[in-house]
Structure formats: structure tokens, C-alpha cells
Design a protein that fits this description.
349 residues, alpha/beta, 14 helices, 10 strands, 52% helix, elongated
């Protein structure tokens, strides 16, 4: 049975109302003369309104993008997914998207194809589909470069990458969080302009990445988002050492996290830095290390490495001098060395 026939939703031939779009302001950076574009409101016609957009993959990212783009008046025309239930869900959330059985059908019936699968599946899909000249083929991976789309480019398709720099814990959170996000773009020519317009229509910002930038960009995202969760886990484990359960610890630490993010937003780095290293409080750092040796020795390497990375930030803030920085470095390096030698002895035993 052709499943696409079951989910075909007839479209009314109606005039689309005039909608709000965006124009951009370029804000230069002090680094390499580059910058970032911000969206501001205006009114006008949408160049991409004539394009039929399809999604291969109806997980969290694909569904969130489809829903938000549909709200902005874009023609989300087709979807396919490894999970039929996911494709049906996207259909229900957008209202008039045709559910197809295969990626090939989506590629054949749309002008712009977003591949929003797992990273490992992108290459498999690109290799399996027969692409056509003039098609726009875009993946949303934060880590993969455009190399994975080379088979499409070789037959004349224009290829690009459109990565929302945002965390996607659930579909609804993803939909809510897209506004204000930065989108990392890789593309050239007409497709690049189309992707810029998409980012601005989603009330976001955009940056253009060059070949070779993607890995460093994605590593920075992992440090900022994923490892923040790990740091909170380490902190809640420490609270457990004095009898506070993790859920209570998180509630206690959240205002501190939010305050820190507020300081970063308003004061930037290095001025947002506070704490013992920012003050040159060497005695407190030593107390921390002594306590961790007794209660949570496994955390010592992370504490020391993060401390060593924090010292240059404190120096840049101007609240400690070179002598204080050297003393802090010596304490942290010596602790790491002692910890490493202890581990080597344990392995030999």
C-alpha cells in the first residue's frame, strides 16, 4: 500500500496573506573583521515562499524547523522518516504535509530538501537518492561539513548546511527555543542567500562558516551546552557528600547558574568571572583541593584543569597579578601531578 496516499492532505488554493519578514543588520566583530547578522522586523514578500520544502527525517530538529517555518508561511510540502509515527506527527503539527515512503519521493517532489536525520545517516541517504540539477540539498548537522553532500553536488545540486545553535531536549522546547538562536550556515550563491533568509524568518541570527570551521564550531557548542550538564552533575554529586539529594541540589544551584548566565550576557567575558581564582584567593583553592581529596577524588582532575583555564580569564579581568597567577598554577599543576602519579601506582599494583 502506498502510504503517501493515506496522508495526502488536499490544499486549498487560497491567496496567502502578506506576512512579516526580516531584514538584517550586520554587527562587526573585532576578530578577523567578521561579524554576526541580527534580524529586525519589516514587511515584504518572501522569496522562498514559492519553493516547496521537504524534510528527510522527522525527529526533534526536523519537526521543530518544519513547524516554525510553516508558521512563517513557508510551503512545507513533504516528509519522510524512518519512523512512520514521527512523519505522521510532523504532518499533524503542520497540517498539510504529504508523508512519503522514501527519501527519493521527497527529493522528487520538493525544491529544497532538509536532511534532518542523525549524523551517521546523512551519508547513507545522500548516496541512495538520485539528485537532480538545481535542487537545494541541506543538512542540519553541527559536526559534518559539506563533504557528505558531495554526491548531490556532483550532479548539479546546490548543497549547504543549516545548523541551529540550540539545545533540543524535546520537540516543544526546540520549537520555543529557535527564536533568537544563531544558525551556522555553509553554502554559496543563491542557496546561501536563501538560508540567510530562513534564519532571519525564524527570528534568529546567522553566521557563515568556511570549510574547515565546522569541527571547532561544534566542539565549542559541546563545551557550552553538553559539558555544562556534566558540570552540574559533578556539583550535585558534591552536594550528595553532605546529604543533599540531587533534585534539591539542582534547585539550589539553578539561581547561581542563571545569575552567571545573566552576568555573561550583560558583562561578557572576562568581566563575568567571579570566585576564588578571580580574587586570587589561593587559600580557598587549597581548601577545595584538600576537601576533594577526602570526599571526591575523582573530581580533582576536572577541578584542576578548569582552574588552570580560568587563571588567564582572571588575569584578563585585571583582578589578580602575575605572581598570584603563578602561585595558583603551581598548586593546580602539583595537585594534578600527584594525582597522576597515584593513579600510575594503582595501575602497577
Amino acid at each position: 500500500m502506498d502510504l503517501s496516499s493515506l496522508f495526502w492532505v488536499s490544499r486549498l488554493d487560497r491567496k496567502r496573506p502578506r506576512r512579516q519578514v526580516k531584514r538584517s543588520i550586520f554587527v562587526p566583530s573585532l576578530v578577523n573583521g567578521e561579524g554576526i547578522f541580527f534580524a529586525i522586523s519589516s514587511h515584504g514578500d518572501n522569496k522562498m515562499g514559492k519553493l516547496k520544502i521537504g524534510f528527510i527525517g522527522a525527529g526533534t530538529v526536523g519537526t521543530a524547523l518544519a513547524v516554525r517555518l510553516k508558521r512563517q508561511g513557508y510551503d512545507i510540502a513533504a516528509v519522510t522518516s524512518r519512523s512512520l509515527s514521527s512523519a505522521r506527527r510532523l504532518n499533524e503539527m503542520t497540517g498539510d504535509v504529504v508523508v512519503y515512503n522514501t527519501p527519493q519521493e521527497v527529493a522528487d517532489h520538493t525544491d529544497l530538501v532538509f536532511i534532518t536525520t542523525t549524523d551517521d545517516a546523512i551519508q547513507l541517504i545522500v548516496d541512495a537518492v538520485r539528485w537532480h540539477q538545481g535542487k537545494y540539498v541541506v543538512h542540519c548537522s553541527g559536526a559534518d561539513s559539506l563533504d557528505v553532500l558531495e554526491p548531490a553536488r556532483m550532479v548539479g545540486a546546490q548543497v549547504g548546511s543549516f545548523h541551529p545553535l540550540q539545545t533540543f531536549a524535546s520537540i516543544q522546547k526546540a520549537i520555543d527555543n529557535l527564536s533568537g538562536s544563531t544558525f551556522a550556515l555553509e553554502a554559496e550563491g543563491a542557496l546561501l542567500e536563501q538560508l540567510k533568509e530562513l534564519a532571519l524568518s525564524l527570528e534568529g541570527r546567522w553566521i557563515k562558516l568556511d570549510a574547515g570551521d565546522k569541527a571547532a564550531y561544534h566542539a565549542a557548542a559541546v563545551i557550552t551546552s553538553n559539558y555544562l550538564v556534566t558540570l552540574v552533575k559533578l556539583a550535585t554529586d558534591l552536594w550528595g557528600s553532605f546529604g543533599i539529594p540531587a533534585d534539591q541540589a539542582i534547585q539550589a544551584l539553578l539561581p547561581l547558574l542563571k545569575g552567571t548566565l545573566n552576568n555573561i550576557e550583560n558583562l561578557s567575558v572576562p568581566n563575568a568571572l567571579t570566585g576564588p581564582i578571580a580574587r586570587g584567593d589561593i587559600g580557598t583553592v587549597q581548601i577545595h583541593l584538600n576537601t576533594l581529596k577526602e570526599t571526591a577524588p575523582a573530581i580533582i582532575p576536572a577541578y584542576c584543569q578548569l582552574g588552570l583555564q580560568t587563571i588567564p580569564v582572571a588575569l584578563a579581568k585585571g583582578k589578580i597579578n602575575e605572581n598570584q597567577a603563578k602561585e595558583l598554577e603551581d598548586i593546580l599543576h602539583q595537585t594534578l601531578k600527584t594525582f597522576s602519579e597515584r593513579d600510575e601506582k594503582c595501575v602497577q599494583c
